[in-house]
């Protein structure tokens, strides 16, 4: 039975079969296949816990700012530069490709949803700012950082190199089909040919020939394979169908099967050469996986202290020049931001302290107990402090912007809120005491205003009497009276600007009159002499009376505004500050109790004298607290005095009560200031560090055993050592075995193969090593490069040892500096306390008629003490942060920093005592099974000139026999002891490299 298939259906079926074959896989499928092979290659090496990574995918997190929401294979075109874009449509007068815009145009480069999705993994404050601490900074960096993404992509690209080398040594299949039609006409064109009859060249033709219309359809498939021995085999099969449409329409079907085999025996032969590129790529992938694991350690230190300290994965070859700690390192990163923030807080606290002190100095100046020079000196220092505060604030904002853009990969306009829990322990002064001091200062100003009104009223009465008898006074008395009037008018002018009732009733008139009177009095006093003072009194007596009347008006109005409600309201307000101070005492006792709890831990690193001093300091703190609470001028006495003032108050003794409250507020303010120093001292003593007890020799051995980059460095040295053998191979003769053959079909049948149609060719090719100058130079270069790398690795070990020794010394230095700065802060606190008390000490008695004044160096002492407190606080903070940063660097440099899957440091204490007790550690895999070179059979080779035939005498034979083990076990060299690196050159009796394979 015959079946007939319609030609149309047959054509569609052939098209359906041939279409996918012609088109091949889609772009997406190629991308997915590349990912599958690359991740598989990485996973084969990702099982060792020393460098295993939980996530090595290069697809960006969908929450990332850099995530691309579009199909990577059909991505829309970014916005182009208009001037450049025109060349995509027309270049050199030629029309460009018209499908550039088929996928559309994207307006934004970054992920438009990344800000919205911040709430999924970051804490957002009420001010719509991202709460930033160490954990959140690490998470944000892993989601957004381009640096981390770049290192992941480098690791991925290295795995692609591995897949390429594996493919090169794998069986590769090729197949295709060709279709061609040839037409030959009936005539051949004229041509020049030699005529033997005439013995000359003539033009002959045209000739008549057979017409031909032939269609050839050829299909072929072949497989190619490279062997680990450097041989190569090619097997192919092809069939051909020829159709001749001229005449009787004949056709021919034929097939051929062929093969080709090449195997070098000397040059280019052997597994050492054939597997070299694959071995290198496999070892580089392992090295980059380790480098990525170490990069994660450095990435954490970069986030926290602003220092990467590692190189990360590299696409090129490995290096024996390894990076180690240089011996210099500061505090940047997140800790640097906290340091700047706390320094700003210290400056603000110092500024508040200076402002409080300035008010006291101004009060002393008003009472003529201090000269204006000291007051102005303090005022000038306050302005300098304000300017410094502005600089510090601006520097912090710039540092935050740099941190967001350079470390986290976030834009500078993203608002962040620093979580300062880590440095809260350095906020020595209780926050409650600050608010209490602010409230007490307001009350002090308030009661001072009330007391000043009473004092001014008394001075008005005295001056009224003095002015009435001014004509009877001598020159000195007149001068003194007018100066007192000038002071009174100045004070009244200040108050006139603050009294609302006066402003409403006489808008600015009285204030202006008093200001003019102040200037007028200054002119009169400056021009007053013994010869004209009598005439001046007669001329200005009426003006003096008007000035005094204006002062009286201001005082009366002020009395109506203030004294009408006082001191009843003041007594009520000041009573509200009793319980907060009592709570401050309770908080201080809690701080002292916490100090006693941590005292045993603090004393572990102290000697006997330091322990005794520490004990005395704790006892003094408790004694001072008891004195402030129960002493003669303590809290209990102050509460009792306030109770007596409240109970004894009446309208008749209002002024007396005001004077008593003025003294009470001053004493209470001093009590709170001195009380705040006790928790500050206690909190200061509580702060400590985790001591690291590690000997330099043990630390160096730990680093050699655990540093992933030094594992890579040892592998890189062996790579350069293997390169010597590869370069030496090129010096040999070319000796190659070749074989090829084919078998064809004999008849018009595509499967009618017959042995009689077969052909076979066997051969051997030899090329003498007569022109090997370039190869010789390459070999000599490989020898030099190996020695360079060997020296580099030795120097890298020296650098590592130097860096670790420097880190251990720095740790010890930072710990001692912490104790030094702790004592400096203690001394500064005591100085501030004593200098503040000096303001309350009555000035010494002077001769009759002279005005007593306090110490002329009071302002300098105050500024020095307060400046020293701020400086010592900043230095103490810097010492602690530097110790923390140095400890973090030490863990990274030792290679013992453990991270969780999210990249956060698992801050577990490492038992370094075990490392100190043991001479070596056994954290690495055992060494490769290569017999060590026996030292007794070796002869030291001192530097000398050698000829090129002696190169083989510098490598031991056991390493030649172990070459296969080196290629098959790329990770095994990690277990090599470092004492195998740096041996002097040796002579071996047998020359292995001079022999042929």
From TrEMBL:
Keywords: Coiled coil, Signal. The keyword RNA-binding does not apply. Residues 344-406 form a coiled coil. Transmembrane segments: none annotated. The keyword Kinase does not apply. Residues 1-23 form the signal peptide. Residues 953-997 are annotated as: Disordered. InterPro entries: MdtP/NodT-like (IPR010131). GO terms for molecular function: efflux transmembrane transporter activity. This is Outer membrane efflux protein. It comes from Stieleria marina.
């Amino acid at each position: 039975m015959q079946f007939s298939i319609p030609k149309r259906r047959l054509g569609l079926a052939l098209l359906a079969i041939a279409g996918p074959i012609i088109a091949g896989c889609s772009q997406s499928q190629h991308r997915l296949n590349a990912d599958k092979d690359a991740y598989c290659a990485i996973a084969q090496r990702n099982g060792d816990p020393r460098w295993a990574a939980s996530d090595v995918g290069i697809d960006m997190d969908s929450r990332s700012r850099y995530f691309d929401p579009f199909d990577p294979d059909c991505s829309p075109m970014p916005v182009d530069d208009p001037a450049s874009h025109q060349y995509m449509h027309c270049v050199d007068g030629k029309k460009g490709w018209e499908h550039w815009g088929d996928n559309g145009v994207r307006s934004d480069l970054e992920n438009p949803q990344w800000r919205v999705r911040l709430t999924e993994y970051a804490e957002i404050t009420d001010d719509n700012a991202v709460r930033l601490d160490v954990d959140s900074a690490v998470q944000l960096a892993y989601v957004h950082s381009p640096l981390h993404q770049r290192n992941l992509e480098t690791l991925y690209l290295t795995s692609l190199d591995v897949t390429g080398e594996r493919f090169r040594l794998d069986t590769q299949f090729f197949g295709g089909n060709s279709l061609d039609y040839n037409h030959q006409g009936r005539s051949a064109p004229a041509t020049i040919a030699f005529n033997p009859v005439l013995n000359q060249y003539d033009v002959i033709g045209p000739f008549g020939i057979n017409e031909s219309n032939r269609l050839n359809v050829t299909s072929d498939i072949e497989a190619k394979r490279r062997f680990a021995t450097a041989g190569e085999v090619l097997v192919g099969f092809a069939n051909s169908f020829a159709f001749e449409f001229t005449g009787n329409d004949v056709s021919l079907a034929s097939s051929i099967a062929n093969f080709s085999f090449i195997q070098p025996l000397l040059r280019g032969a052997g597994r050492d050469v054939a597997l070299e590129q694959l071995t290198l790529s496999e070892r580089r992938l392992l090295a980059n996986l380790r480098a990525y694991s170490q990069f994660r350690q450095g990435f954490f230190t970069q986030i926290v202290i602003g220092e990467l300290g590692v190189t990360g994965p590299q696409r090129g070859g490995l290096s024996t020049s390894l990076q180690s700690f240089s011996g210099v390192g500061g505090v940047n990163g997140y800790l640097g931001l906290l340091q700047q923030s706390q320094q700003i807080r210290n400056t603000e606290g110092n500024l508040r302290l200076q402002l409080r002190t300035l008010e006291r100095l101004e009060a002393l100046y008003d009472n003529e107990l201090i000269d204006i020079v000291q007051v102005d000196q303090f005022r000038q220092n306050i302005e300098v402090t304000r300017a410094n505060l502005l600089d510090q604030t601006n520097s912090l904002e710039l540092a935050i912007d740099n941190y967001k853009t350079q470390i986290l990969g976030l834009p500078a306009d993203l608002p962040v809120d620093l979580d300062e829990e880590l440095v809260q322990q350095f906020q020595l002064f209780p926050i409650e005491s600050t608010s209490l001091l602010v409230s007490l200062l307001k009350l002090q100003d308030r009661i001072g205003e009330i007391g000043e009104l009473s004092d001014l009223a008394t001075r008005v009465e005295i001056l009224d009497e003095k002015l009435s008898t001014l004509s009877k006074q001598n020159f000195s008395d007149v001068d003194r009276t007018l100066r007192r009037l000038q002071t009174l008018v100045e004070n009244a002018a200040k108050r006139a600007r603050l009294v609302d009732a006066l402003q409403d009733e006489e808008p600015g008139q009285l204030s202006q009159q008093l200001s003019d009177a102040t200037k007028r009095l200054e002119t009169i006093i400056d021009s007053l002499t013994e010869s004209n003072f009598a005439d001046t009194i007669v001329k200005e007596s009426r003006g003096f009376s008007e000035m005094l009347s204006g002062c009286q008006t201001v005082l009366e109005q002020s009395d109506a505004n203030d004294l009408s409600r006082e001191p009843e309201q003041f007594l009520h307000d000041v009573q509200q500050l009793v319980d907060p101070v009592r709570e401050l005492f309770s908080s201080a006792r809690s701080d002292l109790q916490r100090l006693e709890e941590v005292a045993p831990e603090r004393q572990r690193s102290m000697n006997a004298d330091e322990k005794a001093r520490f004990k005395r300091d704790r006892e003094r703190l408790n004694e001072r607290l008891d004195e402030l609470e129960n002493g003669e001028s303590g809290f209990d006495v102050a509460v009792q005095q306030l109770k007596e003032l409240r109970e004894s108050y009446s309208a008749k003794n209002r002024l007396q009560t005001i004077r008593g409250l003025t003294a009470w507020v001053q004493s209470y303010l001093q009590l709170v200031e001195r009380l705040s120093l006790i928790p500050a001292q206690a909190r200061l003593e509580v702060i400590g560090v985790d001591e690291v007890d590690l000997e330099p020799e043990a630390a160096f051995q730990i680093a050699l055993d655990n540093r992933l980059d030094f594992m890579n460095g040892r592998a890189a040295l062996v790579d350069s050592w293997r390169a010597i053998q590869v370069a030496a191979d090129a010096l040999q003769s070319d000796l190659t075995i070749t074989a090829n053959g084919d078998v064809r079909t004999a008849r018009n049948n595509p499967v009618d193969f017959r042995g009689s149609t077969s052909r076979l060719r066997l051969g051997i090719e030899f090329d003498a090593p007569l022109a090997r100058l370039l190869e010789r130079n390459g070999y000599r270069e490989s020898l030099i490069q190996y020695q360079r790398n060997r020296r580099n690795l030795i120097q890298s070990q020296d650098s590592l040892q130097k860096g670790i020794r420097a880190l251990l010394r720095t740790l010890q230095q930072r710990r001692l500096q912490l104790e030094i700065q702790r004592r400096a802060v203690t001394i500064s606190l005591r100085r501030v306390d004593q200098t503040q008390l000096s303001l309350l000490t009555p000035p010494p008695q002077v001769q009759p008629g002279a005005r007593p004044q306090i110490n002329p160096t009071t302002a300098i002492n105050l500024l020095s003490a307060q400046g020293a407190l701020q400086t010592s606080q900043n230095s103490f903070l810097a010492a602690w942060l530097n110790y923390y940063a140095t400890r973090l660097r030490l863990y990274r440099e030792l290679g013992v920093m453990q991270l969780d899957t999210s990249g956060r440091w698992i801050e577990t204490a490492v038992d370094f005592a075990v490392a100190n007790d043991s001479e070596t550690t056994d954290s690495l895999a055992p060494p490769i099974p290569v017999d060590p070179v026996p030292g007794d059979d070796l002869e030291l080779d001192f530097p000398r000139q050698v000829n090129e035939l002696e190169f083989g005498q510098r490598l031991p034979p056991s390493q030649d026999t172990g070459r296969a083990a080196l290629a098959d076990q790329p990770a095994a060299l990690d277990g090599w002891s470092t004492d195998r690196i740096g041996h002097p050159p040796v002579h071996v009796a047998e020359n292995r490299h001079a022999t042929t394979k």
